[in-house]
Amino acid sequence: MMKFVGLAAILASGTALGACSDHAGGGGAAAMVGNFSGTWAGTTGGGGTLVATFALEDSEDVMGTVSFSGSPCFDSAALELQVDDGDVSGTATEANASIELDGTLNVGVVSGTFQVESAGLCSGATGSFTMAHE
After folding, report:
1. Per-residue pLDDT for the chain (134 aa), expressed as one digit of tens each?
2. Cα first-last separation, the chain
3. What are the E-state strand segments in the chain?
């Protein structure tokens, strides 16, 4: 019953994100620039699709937006993610609601988990996400 990815990532099924980069070889923020799509699934049910767009902020950070389907709490959110040698973490925010994302960039695929920090009835919800470069 929640609307996020989560983030993506923050975080179900396999999809790719960015130019081919490998976790073992380190995936930088530049590998996450562009348009992406994927899915999210809540651990207690619910799920849907997500569409994100990222722009490079600096060598380890990307900013962007994400839109969700299937969530009663989120339609879209602003994203700020840090990428360090293939590890991805950050926050999606919409108004006073926030979602913490943790994931991995591996051979162009970003997948991970999310936890809703504050969002009314969705607060405390957790799940998984996966995104792919379009």
Report:
1. 334 333 333 333 333 333 333 434 346 888 888 888 999 999 888 899 999 999 999 888 999 999 999 988 888 999 999 999 889 999 999 988 899 999 998 877 899 999 999 877 888 999 999 998 88
2. 27
3. 34-42, 47-58, 61-68, 76-84, 87-94, 97-106, 109-118, 126-133
Distance CA 42, CA 53 (A): 22
Cα 87–Cα 89–Cα 92 angle in degrees, nearest 5: 150
For 22, the token pair is: 């490998």
The number of residues making up the chain comes to: 134
Pick from 37, 29, 94: which is nearest to 63 by CA? 29
Pairing assessment for the beta strands 47-58 and 34-42 based on DSSP bridges: antiparallel
The two tokens of residue 85 are 């040698």
Q: Are residues 124 and 115 in contact, defined by beta-carbon separation less than 8 angstroms?
A: yes
The structure tokens listed for 116 are 């809703």
Closest by CA to 126, choosing from 100, 107, 108, is 100
Give CA–CA dist 35/45, Å, rounded: 27
